[in-house]
Specification:
single chain, alpha/beta, Rossmann fold, 6-stranded parallel sheet, 4-stranded parallel sheet, 12 strands, elongated
């Protein structure tokens, strides 16, 4: 369904486009009766006024909506910076929304983007369990293209670009198993979301391939934050058997793990090996440089912009899904088991 325009509202209210515009903007001399009629028509049609319409004569605004989940984690700052640069080169502006991983905020920004009649949306999905994705149906109904970056919602098809998260976790787990580690604990977000489940699949595949013993209790569910890593480590150390290694869903969680282990005077990697995921710029500068899995962020953002613009220009095209290859980065936070 095409987006409703001011012309549609005017036609429904049986007034001129100029009168409809004045009635909705509160400008000019319009009778109360006419104004009520125009507003009623706008509500009935689901009209969202385009605030850029005064500046643009074409149907496009050259604005792309971008929603990320977090700005505390520098990983998402890298996404903002790279996508903004890529879009700028293609003469697009960015309208940013920060959902704080709260689905109601994500819904709010999608509604705002629709109101502003953006040309498309790039979305980092929430990591919450089974979120309500009805707001994405709103984008589809209004024929506003969107694409996912870093992960995706399983129930709403759209182009997506991400690292092969399963392969990255597989490489990391395999390396640790071959280094003599047996009990490897993995701290991840809820497995109902692809970003967590794919990582766990790679971890389990490495165990199966090695024929090594594994316990489901070694998978710890936590918020993908610094505190999530810190608090999970506290619970892990209270268990009856200390792990050989702790893996985390991202580098920020791994930093929480490192902090708690340091407070407990447990040496890394001599006491416990620790590894993250993402390869943030400062992970090599930590007191104990972090073993991690590198995501090719610049390439990912460039491809996300390409996918979205292609979808804007070819609405009936396929929903391409692109997986980029991760890279294992071995540093001092892991070592062979004595």
């Amino acid at each position: 369904m095409a987006a409703v325009t001011i012309k549609d509202v005017a036609r429904s209210a049986k007034v001129s486009v100029g009168t409809a515009s004045m009635a909705l903007n509160g400008k000019g001399v319009v009778s109360a009766q006419t104004k009520e009629k125009v507003i009623a028509a706008a509500k009935s049609l689901g009209f969202h006024p385009n605030k850029y319409a005064k500046l643009l004569n074409s149907k496009r605004t050259n604005v792309i909506g971008l929603i990320i989940t977090d700005i505390v984690n520098p990983f998402f700052g890298i996404i903002i910076d790279n996508i903004q640069e890529e879009l700028s080169q293609k003469k697009y502006d960015v309208m940013l929304g920060i959902s704080n991983d709260i689905i109601s905020k994500e819904q709010h920004f999608i509604s705002k983007f629709i109101e502003m009649q953006v040309d498309g949306v790039i979305l980092v999905p929430s990591s919450k369990q089974a979120p309500n994705t009805s707001h994405l149906h709103m984008l589809q109904e209004r024929e506003i293209p969107f694409c996912y970056i870093t992960t995706y919602y399983s129930d709403i098809p759209a182009p997506s670009i991400m690292t092969d998260l399963s392969e990255g976790s597989y490489q990391l787990t395999k390396y640790l198993l071959e280094a003599g580690h047996k009990k490897i604990v993995y701290i991840v977000a809820n497995r109902t979301i692809p970003a967590a489940n794919l990582r766990v699949e790679g971890y389990l595949n490495a165990y199966r391939e090695a024929g090594a013993r594994f316990s489901p209790e070694w998978i710890i569910i936590a918020e993908p934050t610094f505190n999530g890593g810190y608090n999970s480590t506290n619970a892990i150390l209270k268990g009856s058997h200390r792990p050989d290694a702790i893996l985390t869903m991202n580098d920020i969680m791994a930093m929480g793990v490192l902090k708690h282990l340091k407070e407990c005077k447990i040496q890394v990697p001599d006491g416990i090996s620790v590894a993250g995921y993402d390869d943030l710029i400062y992970t090599s500068l930590l007191e104990t440089p972090l073993t991690t899995v590198k995501q090719p962020m610049e390439q990912m953002c460039k491809k996300a912009v390409e996918l979205l613009i292609h979808k804007i220009e070819n609405p009936d095209g396929i929903n391409e899904k692109v997986l980029l290859r991760p890279e294992l980065i071995i540093r001092n936070s892991t070592a062979p088991r004595a």
